[in-house]
Write a structure and sequence with these properties.
mainly alpha
């Protein structure tokens, strides 16, 4: 076994164990930290595959931005851990069945027989002149331009839906109307009422 293969198996084991901890641990902050570990380990696997650009993007975008946002949100909201523990035990059989179905589907759809990876020899190592960022850009904006634009539209719809769900008006909640506050005049702010004085006892 070569050194590169040993590193691959080490990173794969860390990735699988950290991903399992993400979905099984009960503390949401620790789950987010294990997800950060999974992202960093996946970036290491990308580097082993000579896809340095994807590895850097994974670390900068997901670890540096998305997971920091997740950690802030998780630490700022009041998460009821007791309710999470009750729901975990109740939905564990259904979740295990769904996970097993997903594993079977992924093994059938992404297996080596499906794509013929078992018959393909290992690619030759690329030289220092090879630029995978340029090759990735050409593939995305020429061959896969329509799926790339479709994914962008789906993400845009998801962003709009998330904003609409977060900004929906709830009954009983008081809101400030900035337009009405700006249009208020001095006469509307102060009202003088004349009241007769009380007679002295």
């Amino acid at each position: 076994m070569s050194f590169q293969v040993a590193i691959f198996y080490l990173f794969a084991a860390i990735l699988l164990s950290s991903a399992a901890m993400v979905v099984t641990i009960r503390n949401p902050v620790k789950a987010a930290l294990f997800l950060v570990l999974a992202f960093v380990t996946a970036a290491g696997l990308w580097i082993l595959l000579e896809a340095e650009f994807l590895a850097i993007v994974l670390v900068l975008v997901y670890v540096g931005a998305v997971m920091v946002l997740f950690l802030f949100v998780v630490m700022m909201i009041d998460v009821n851990l007791a309710a999470l523990r009750e729901g975990f035990v109740r939905y564990l059989p259904l979740g295990a069945i769904v996970a097993l179905i997903m594993v079977v589907e992924m093994s059938v759809a992404l297996g080596p027989r499906r794509f013929g990876l078992a018959r393909v020899p290992a690619p030759a190592p690329l030289g220092s002149h090879y630029d995978n960022t340029r090759v990735l850009g050409k593939l995305l904006y020429t061959v896969y331009v329509y799926p790339f634009e479709l994914a962008a539209v789906i993400l845009l719809v998801a962003i709009i839906a998330a904003i609409a769900l977060a900004m929906r008006r709830r009954p009983g909640t008081k809101y400030q109307d900035a337009g009405r506050q700006v249009d208020v005049t001095a006469q509307a702010r102060l009202r003088i009422i004349k009241m007769p004085s009380e007679p002295k006892a």
